[in-house]
Amino acid sequence: MADTWVRMVTAQTPTNIAVIKYWGKRDETLILPVNDSISVTLDPNDLCTTTTVAVSPTFDQDRMWLNGKEISLSGGRFQSCLKEIRARACEVEDEEKAIKIAKKDWEKLHLHIASYNNFPTAAGLASSAAGFACLVFSLAKLMNAKEDNSELSAIARQGSGSACRSLFGGFVKWTMGKVDNGSDSLAIQVADEKHWDDLVIIIAVVSSRMKETSSTTGMRDTVETSLLLQHRAKEVVPKRIVEMEEAIKNRDFASFARLTCSDSNQFHAVCLDTQPPIFYMNDTSHKIINCVEKWNRSEETPQVAYTFDAGPNAVLIAHNRKAAAQLMQKLLYYFPPNSDTDINSYVAGDKTILKDAG
Ligand code: ADP
Ligand code: DP6
Ligand code: CO
Questions:
Q1: 76 CA from centroid of ligand 1 (Å)
Q2: Is pLDDT above 60 for 354?
Q3: Whose CA is nearest to atom 18 of ligand 1?
Q4: Where is the Diphosphomevalonate decarboxylase-like N-terminal domain (predicted)?
Q5: Which of 15, 16, 20, 22 has most ligand 2 atoms within 8 Å of CB, for mutation?
Q6: Ligand 2 binding pocket mutation candidate from 25, 77, 162 (most atoms within 8 A of CB)
């Protein structure tokens, strides 16, 4: 085997948006959550991460570039993911390229990783979810690991909690698990991407700036200081998870919208109940909530659900294409581009509408 070969794998992974939120860890190192969560995975052509992982005997250390800039891999989360995947690496034989990597070679071979997000990083649009899911998935393929996506989800979880849910399409549940080593804290698919394909997701990018308080820091402060979080995790979320699974299975949009909006609002209430309080939403986010609430009340049944992650950007889920068109019409009327409302782009389906208009 010549010693100048390079083996490369590229993968693309969509982000996911939680409709029942994960917020709070019971174990910081293993990333074990205080409650179950449910999300919807976006279309792979929408907001996604593309990661290329390469291995070569000529590489003398593990290195990573994110959006073109080199970043450090020394953090515990990257190290956990690399360690877990390396432990599962298997023999690779590529006759065409005359490459043969024995199982034990993976311990000493180094990696180069290049990752690119096609949407704002660290701005509350779940870049850590798409990012770590894609990293773990591409490494597993590179190293010929035999684990299924649920098992890989438990590794991605150790990079960023929300990442475990991006290993599957459609609606996905992250079960918090019971055991101390976290092996049962993983993602399972609730319904596949075809199950409810009338839904249209529109994201109003209110700000693509990096958030001031990362999800990790924010939820740590919440766990330490918020009493409301304990009520939420023990009393509220377990019931909502059951109801949400039902709503998804029955394609019951009225229940789905009620649960999604309530859970987003309670998550932000918990942030406000944190000491010092965390404000992820801004005036524009609040105006969007008002607009959707008013519209939903004026209809026989709700037409749109809203949810906001740890940032001011609105994720709007419309009942169907007609509701999505009406929603866009309303958004453009109330939040016109180049106004002081601050929305700088809308992303719908696989298209960005009005990119950077504001
Ligand atoms: P977000 O709301 O975008 O998920 P977080 O604060 O949760 O913001 O996480 C942002 C962090 O996730 C980044 O600082 C980086 O460490 C990590 N991250 C983002 N994109 C990637 C990627 N493509 N590959 C690996 N890690 C990533
Ligand atoms: C509001 O998964 O980004 O998006 O596990 O510390 O990396 P870490 O946090 P992260 O938190 C996501 C929080 C959320 C809700 C959710 O995705 O469920
Ligand atoms: Co994140």
A1: 14
A2: no
A3: 128
A4: 14-187
A5: 22
A6: 162
Distance (Å, rounded) from C-alpha 134 to C-alpha 112?
14
Dist CA 126 CA 175 (whole Å): 19
Confidence at 42, pLDDT banded by 50, 70, 90: very high
Residue 208: what pLDDT?
77
Separation CA 306–CA 119 (nearest Å): 19
**What is the pLDDT averaged over residues 91-118?**
93
Does residue 83 carry a pLDDT above 90? Answer: yes
**By alpha-carbon position, which residue is closest to atom 5 of ligand 2?**
161
Mean per-residue pLDDT of the chain = 92
How far apart are alpha carbons 217 and 223 in whole angstroms? Answer: 10
Q: Is 160 in the pocket of ligand 2 (CB under 6 A)?
A: yes
Mean pLDDT (whole number) for 134-152? 97
Decide: 215 in ligand 2 pocket, CB within 6 A. yes
Average pLDDT over residues 21-45: 96
Pick from 257, 274, 166: nearest CA to 219: 274
Q: Which ligand is nearest to the CA of 222?
A: 2
The closest of 225, 237, 241 to 274, measured between CA atoms, is 225
- For residue 93, report the distance from its CA to the centre of ligand 1, in Å: 33
Which residues are CB-contacts of 155 (< 8 A; sequence separation ≥ 6)?
Answer: 80, 81, 84, 85, 136, 147
Beta strands at 351-353 and 171-174: parallel, antiparallel or unpaired:
unpaired
Label residue 309 exposed, middle or buried (CB < 10 Å: 0-12, 13-18, 19+).
buried
Instruction: Work out whether strand 37-41 and strand 171-174 pair parallel, antiparallel, or are unpaired.
Output: antiparallel
CA–CA gap between residue 24 and residue 224 (Å, rounded): 9
Q: How confident is the model at residue 340 (pLDDT cuts 50, 70, 90)?
A: low
As a whole-number percent, the residues of the chain with pLDDT over 90 amount to 83
Nearest CA owner, ligand 1 atom 17:
128
Task: Please report which ligand is nearest the Cα atom of 217.
Answer: 2
309 Cβ inside 6 Å of ligand 2: yes
Among 131, 135, 154, 153, which residue's Cα sits nearest to residue 143? 135
